[in-house]
Amino acid sequence: MSQISSNSYREGRAALVICETINTAKEIYEELKSSIKGEIILYSRSDKESLSKIDKELEPGDVIVATNLAGRGTDIKVSKKVNSNGGLFVILSFLSENTRVELQAFGRTARKGKPGSAQIIACTEHLQHDFRSATSLEEAKITRNRLAAEKISSMMDDVSEMNLREDLFSEYCETLHDIYKKTDGDDRKVIVAIMNEFWGIWLQIKSEDIEQRKKSELQQSLKKDLSVARQESSSQTSPCSSIYHYINFGNIFLDDKKWENSARLFDKAMKQDKSWAAIAFYSHAYCTIQLSKGDYLTQAKEDLQKAQESLKYLCEECLVCLQFIKMASVDSGKGEPSSLEKQMTSKCSMYRFFDKNITEAIQKIDEIKEKGRDAIAKKSPVFSLVSDADEALQLEADNLYSRGLKYVFSVEEKPRFCWEGLVVFLLGVLQIVAGALLTVFTVGTLAQIGMGLISEGISDCIEGITAMVTGEFSWKEWAIGKAISIGVSIISFGVGKIISKGFKAAKTAIKAIGKN
């Protein structure tokens, strides 16, 4: 107050009070508002309205209360009277974290050869915790400067580490660039994904060496490790021993219908960890059916059963999480299910649809094995498991897809050419030919037999064609049907003969009675 008030040897000056926060500026503004004779201005934001308040020249007795950020870069104008009385008086109401901020604050006055002065006025209670033990401002500044130097040193260490990480990343990017040039399609996607994962793991393993700035050792190690990882990836081997890497490699061969290569890679994934290899077991079963070697149906069934066992772990994990979420929802008193609960419910439903698909495949394999027939597997996108209209389930299907389940499949009996049907068809043709010859070249009973043969022949031709189309035929059923048909024909033929003889006898008797 003494600086801005008039006294016996000079008139008052103008003051700029710089605060650390907006709240502090507002508090000081409210405290000074009633005791300042001149104009007091609160300048806490660098917007147009605030700038217009300080655009005019300050007169003796005027005070601006500003934050450090709002006042930065602002030209505070003062009148000639203020300059003649000592210029702008700057008060820094806090001890800044470093000397630079302090000098910036003091630099608001005494510009371009004009007079001015500055002073720090701070309360010990409002100082930062590290400065409160100081017995004087000078001691607090010494502590401040020491801490600032330590902070700068730490930051320089961080910068050094960042530069090292940048150099290592540049080396990795060169490897990626070469992969992009020499690969394409699914091969590129899988190899890049594997290399990205390898890069992340490598950084974790080498974190201590990075902190110790072992630049040359790290660069040599990275080149060697990237070369090995790339070679392993190119030969369909996971440098990180990841189930999903082998599954992705297997899917590439699966798309190319290279069943043996695909099955080999799925088998590697299965051996990594059987508990979490449901997708690998499932896809291996598909390849086994496609190869159709040896007792392939038994092998495919075993793979599907192991896939179901592995899927149970995922289902149980999901159900446990869902139960905890529901318990938390009950405790919170929320009536509607949370988005997380809905997501976990959809995930559980997706697993059930997948499990149902596996169960149906196993049942169909059992049916086909019982018949002694061969099987085929028809694949479709994993998204076909659920309705297109259910967005939540489609998202869960996409989650399975990203983990390597590109396709699901159904098992069907393999269509085959029915030679039995061809034999029956040829028998039918012979019957038709024989029946036609009897009908044309004979009369009476033989002609009737010929018509019966034609009828039976047509029936056998139809049955033979049906069998060749469907691949289904049973000699037993054909023989029973043929026996019944022939029996009916014989009976019908015998009844016809009796009726005919009875008609002739009656006709003879009538003629005899007429003569008498």
What integer value in Å does the Rg equal? 48 Å
Which quaternary structure do these chains form? single chain
> H/E element string?
EHEHEHHEHEHHHHHHHHHEHEHHH
Quick one: how many beta strands? 7
Largest sheet, if any?
5 strands, parallel
GO molecular function: ATP binding
GO biological process, one term: protein targeting
Protein name: SECA2
Organism: Poeciliopsis prolifica
Summarize the topology:
Layout lengths: L14 E5 L2 H11 L7 E4 L4 H6 L9 E5 H4 L8 H5 L3 E5 L6 H8 L9 E5 L16 H46 L2 H21 L1 H5 L3 H20 L8 H13 L3 H14 L5 H14 L4 H37 L6 H33 L3 E7 L9 H12 L4 E7 L5 H23 L3 H26 L4 H41 L1
Parallel strand pairs: 1-3, 1-4, 2-3, 4-5
Antiparallel strand pairs: 6-7
Give a verbal description of the structure.
By secondary structure, this protein is an alpha/beta fold. Among the domains are: about 15-120, Rossmann fold, CATH 3.40.50.300; about 275-415; about 420-515, no CATH class. About 65% of the residues lie in helices and about 5% in strands. It contains 18 helices and 7 strands. It has helices at about 20-30, 50-55, 70, 80-85, 100-105, 135-180, 185-205, 205-210, 215-235, 245-255, 260-270, 280-290, 295-330, 340-370, 390-400, 420-440, 445-470, 475-515; strands at about 15-20, 40-45, 65, 90, 115-120, 375-380, 405-415. The chain has a 5-stranded parallel sheet, sandwiched between helices. The radius of gyration is 48 Å and the shape is elongated. Mean pLDDT is about 85; it is low at about 500-505.
